[in-house]
Amino acid sequence: MKKGKSQKARRKPPKQLERIGIIVVHGVGEQRRFEFLESFASNLYKAISKLSGREPHIQIRHGDQVPRLSPEHSWREAPVLVRWKKADGGEIEAAFREVHWADLDLSRTWWRWVKLVGWSLGISGVRLFVRSGVGKPEEHGMCPPLPLNIWRRLLVRLQLFIVSLMFLVALTTIDLFRWIVRRLSFRWQWLESARILIYNYLGDVKLYQDWFAHRDERVETLGEKSRVAIRRRMIRALVQIAKEIESRQLDGYYIFAHSLGTVVAFNGLMETDLALPNYLTQEEWLGLPAVLKNKVAKPLPEYQMPKRAPWLDKPKTAGKHDAINRKRLFRGLRGFLTLGSPLDKFAALWPAIVPVNGASMGAIPGGAPWFNVADVQDIVGGKLDQFAPCKRAPDIGGLKLKNFDWGDQLFFFLAHTSYWKASKGKRQRLIDRVVPWIEGASLRAPDNALSPFLARVIYWFSLGMAGLLLLWLLAYGVWGILNRASSFFEGPLLSGTSRQWLESLGLIGHYADAIVPTMFCLFVVGVAIVVVCSVARWLWETAKFRRPNGG
User: Fold this and answer.
1) Residues 156/162, Cβ–Cβ less than 8 Å
2) Selecting from 1.10.10.10, 3.30.70.20, 3.30.300.30, 3.40.50.1820, what CATH number does the domain 17-105+220-450 have?
3) Does residue 364 have a pLDDT over 90?
4) Fewer CB atoms < 10 Å away: N or C end of the chain?
5) Considering all CA atoms of the chain, what is the largest pairwise distance in Å, rounded to the nearest integer?
6) Would the pTM of this model clear 0.90, i.e. be above it?
């Protein structure tokens, strides 16, 4: 008997299993379904495997239906589970859910290509933020980001001008050399990849800030702006994971977003209680637990995006309107991590798209931490300092923001796409810091591969050299074409005077004498094109919207 009691006393208590959800939101590009989720989950698994005693295990949850002739098996909505042992003896199981929106991009047509090029070349003429011109966020109980002083506004316009000039040079150079290599009957894949990257980034930014509702045949965006359809997917993911918190299938959740996906995620977290039901289908609204619903006694804004659904506010209750309980919706949120975020750029250019929620009763409870990580050489992301507390809501809609500047990559063209990658060595990259954060510790800044100051020096030097290289390649191609044309059209089509004039400009003749003048002429032409497009955009937007910055 004593022996049995002794054995029972020595038994360890059952290990506690903590179940968490992880919502991942991808950025620009043409990612396929679950591609971003799989990349993050696999790198998290590698980071856990480096820690002693964690014994990670990964599960793939397959679906039960596969489309005909599909090259892949189907996966469930939350397809990947990663389970591992904590340092204190407990266990964690992380279920991944992806907000995928790359398929909402518009199909490529000749006219859309023209509009994208015009938009990209004229972006420095965008109407910048004037606080007196922004009224809509306040109508919804929200606050616009901080205004820019005159010097910051000039700096923003200069940066945008450089972006437009780089876009013009890069696009023209790549297209010219694509044409040349195709004439030689072969293809360079890196040329195709570079072209697609340029179009994807600027195209997706244009897609998210577009002013006009769609009239195409895609029903998911019909009659709405593209960002509404993208935002709907974020909010549906938040609602679904909140339901799992309420049913105790999960104990908490995190949101990890990259690039333009950080704007999508921030919008979902800041959306008002009255607007949140507008994103749901009738079936989803009726299926919500009662604790996630609310009745709000305040007038509906005159203009809502998306429009109010007809099944809401029935039956009417003394002027109260159907809403979602924001505190309950975000009750399980443990942290928000943004990587390579352009939120500050949106705050400067299109502040009405990224307002801060000011409802004290609907603020995210518990002061959930918001960590923003930006590689010093990331041309897209950066430090976030344009956001401030709104009205009576604490912090930024209930989120406590902390910025991390990271000197990680040696060259700027790798900085935006390398945040998640796990390292084989001992250096602690970001993904290695995420593991103890999920286990309950505070998130620590990842180790720098080089000092942030040195990284900034390398960034500006390499950016300038890349611009010169592109301009040189373009000048070389144009110079070659002009020389061949001058030989071909020698005679009545190119008189001696015309040839002498081209030679005096240095555009034809000997390569060593002609290449620098050709580069200079192309640079002047590029600057002139960007100036004309920027002025045209400023005039068009001023005439179209009738006020400085209505958003």
Assistant:
1) no
2) 3.40.50.1820
3) no
4) N
5) 117
6) no
